[in-house]
Specification:
This protein is α+β, with helices and mostly antiparallel strands. It is built from four helices and seven strands; from the N terminus they run H-H-E-E-H-E-E-E-E-E-H. The mean pLDDT is about 95.
């Protein structure tokens, strides 16, 4: 693996650390101005493609529902090639509604000039719906 791939893995690792802190401004600061975030499935208010601003709004809403104001992301395994970094990841958060969010993901990040320019998020949509959306 080359220097670019190692640097891009570092960018993604640092992003997950900031994400886990719940610092929305820090999270958004890790993204390029034209960044997009896509989430699999048909989860109301979560799935689909969001621009940087829309992603920030979604983050704020999700953080409000958690006890700590954040969802912890733990990277488990990386694969990097060029500007693309794929990461198997586990999340954890205790919600104010008494539920626990503990999902598994496969993220594909695109890193451009040290910032994240796009994310594709593949996850267990049934678990997300049951924890965040179901009555």
């Amino acid at each position: 693996m080359g220097a670019l791939e190692e640097e891009n893995k570092k960018v993604v690792t640092e992003f997950m650390e900031v994400f886990s802190s719940g610092d929305v401004n820090g999270i958004l600061g890790s993204l390029t101005d034209d960044a997009t975030w896509w989430v699999a499935g048909n989860i109301p208010g979560i799935s689909g493609t969001k621009d940087k601003s829309g992603f920030g709004e979604m983050l704020g809403g999700i953080a409000e529902g958690t006890k700590t104001g954040a969802i912890t992301l733990t990277p488990l395994a990386f694969t990097a090639e060029g500007e693309r970094v794929a990461v198997e990841t586990e999340s954890y958060a205790e919600l104010k509604n008494g539920r626990v969010y503990n999902n598994l993901y496969h993220f594909v990040f695109t890193v451009r000039d040290g910032k994240i320019s796009s994310v594709k998020e593949f996850l267990d949509t049934e678990h997300t719906t049951a924890v965040f959306v179901a009555p």
